[in-house]
Every structure is written in structure tokens, then in C-alpha cells.
């Protein structure tokens, strides 16, 4: 049969695509778990309330893994209705990723505003003990920054009158002490000068176009799988082909 080589070729391409799709799900699952375990405190600085973003990634990754395996099974089985179901799922993933990419790009300024509000609130209520305070310390230490715009953000915090500027702002921890950090004359020479808000938002602005491009690229790759699944289903149905 002339159609048999075509069907074999489409099956091979769809199995390869489904495997790549499965890998994508595994990556999302891993990123979600990593985000929940490692980025929980930082995420609390970006969202007003506790965010479900890691759980969304974990759930999405798990579903993609399941349907990636389903796609391989449907392809090997040569079942038209399974292939149509697989194509339908890919179309839903395509729409979800498209909406997520557009929303993230359009509302990036709102994300920046939320980060400014929550980070400022964390600085003002800093106490070294709660999750937000630990996240602030980690952020300042790793990004080598201090306060929202600069060290003066700490002068209005509840922590400053008794303890001064947090030690996580020190550019040289071995040359910092509480007395120096409470002295507005000496402290500027002991701490980082750049604010954390500027560093984080400049990173977001610089990389947002790249993130959006990758998201749209992944989204439109679903069209390839949809096309392969629909074509294979149609050819199998038309020729009443079944894999033994």
C-alpha cells in the first residue's frame, strides 16, 4: 500500500514529538518542585498572598507527562479516536500557554508594582524571624543590594531603631557591627549602595522578551503535534489501517 510508508513516517514523527512533549512535562514538574522547595520565600515577596505557581507547574507537568505517554500509546496503537483526543489536549495546552505568555507580557508592570509593594512591606516589618524577613536577607546577600531603592529604605523599618540596618546589607560582613549599622554617617560606607527593586525589575525587563519568546515558541510547537495527530488519524480512518 502506498499509504503504509506515509503512516509509518507520521507515526515515527509523532512518537518523537510525544517523547519531546513528555520531556517538557518532566522539566515543568522538576521546576515546580524546585520552585516550591527553593523559591518559596522569594515567591512570597512577589505575590501579595501565597501563590500557587509552583503547584500549577507541578500539576501541568504531571498532566503533560501522562498525555505524552498517552500520545505514544495512541500512536503505536494506531487508534483514530485516541489520536483525536491527543490532538484536542494539545490544542488546550496551546491555548493555555498562549494566554499565559500574553498575560505575563501585558501585565508585567503590575507584577513589578506588586513586587514593590510586597518588598517594601517586608522591609518595613522586618524582624529577622519570619519567612519574608529571611527572604529579604537572602535576596540582599545574593544580589548584593540593600533596601528597596537604597539603604535609606531601612530607616523607616521597625527593626532599625534597635538594631540598625540588617547585616545582610553589609558589603564586608567582617567589617560590620550593630553600632556602625545604626549610625547614618558610617553605615553608607559599610553597605551595598544599589537597591534590590532596581536590580530585580531591570532583570525582569531585560529578560521578559526572551521569556515571552520561549513561551510562544513552545506554545506554537503544539501545532506541530496537533497537525501530525490529526493527519495520522485521518489517514488511518480513510484507509482503515490497523497496526497488528
TrEMBL record:
Membrane topology: Multi-pass membrane protein
Coiled coil regions in record: none
PROSITE patterns per the UniProt record, alphabetical: TM4_1
Domain of life according to the entry: Eukaryota
Pfam family, one: Tetraspanin
Keyword terms of this UniProt record: Glycoprotein, Membrane, Transmembrane, Transmembrane helix
Function: May be involved in cell proliferation and cell motility.
Family: Belongs to the tetraspanin (TM4SF) family.
Name by which UniProt lists this protein: Tetraspanin-7
Organism: Solea senegalensis
Amino acid at each position: 500500500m502506498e499509504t503504509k510508508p506515509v503512516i509509518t513516517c507520521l507515526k515515527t514523527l509523532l512518537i518523537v514529538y510525544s517523547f519531546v512533549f513528555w520531556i517538557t512535562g518532566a522539566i515543568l514538574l522538576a521546576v515546580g518542585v524546585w520552585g516550591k522547595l527553593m523559591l518559596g520565600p522569594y515567591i512570597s515577596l512577589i505575590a501579595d498572598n501565597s501563590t500557587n505557581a509552583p503547584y500549577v507547574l507541578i500539576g501541568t507537568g504531571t498532566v503533560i507527562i501522562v498525555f505524552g505517554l498517552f500520545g505514544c500509546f495512541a500512536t503505536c496503537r494506531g487508534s483514530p479516536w485516541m489520536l483525536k483526543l491527543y490532538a484536542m489536549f494539545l490544542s488546550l495546552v496551546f491555548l493555555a500557554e498562549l494566554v499565559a505568555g500574553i498575560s505575563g507580557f501585558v501585565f508585567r508592570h503590575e507584577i513589578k508594582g506588586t513586587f514593590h509593594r510586597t518588598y517594601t512591606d517586608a522591609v518595613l516589618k522586618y524582624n529577622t524571624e519570619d519567612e519574608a524577613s529571611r527572604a529579604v536577607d537572602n535576596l540582599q546577600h545574593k544580589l548584593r543590594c540593600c533596601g528597596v531603592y537604597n539603604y535609606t529604605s531601612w530607616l523607616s523599618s521597625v527593626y532599625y531603631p534597635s538594631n540598625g540596618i540588617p547585616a545582610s546589607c553589609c558589603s564586608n560582613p567582617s567589617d560590620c557591627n550593630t553600632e556602625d549599622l545604626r549610625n547614618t554617617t558610617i553605615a553608607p560606607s559599610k553597605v551595598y549602595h544599589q537597591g534590590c527593586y532596581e536590580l530585580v525589575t531591570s532583570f525582569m525587563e531585560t529578560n521578559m522578551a526572551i521569556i515571552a519568546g520561549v513561551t510562544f515558541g513552545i506554545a506554537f510547537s503544539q501545532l506541530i503535534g496537533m497537525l501530525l495527530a490529526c493527519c495520522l488519524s485521518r489517514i488511518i480512518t480513510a484507509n482503515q489501517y490497523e497496526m497488528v
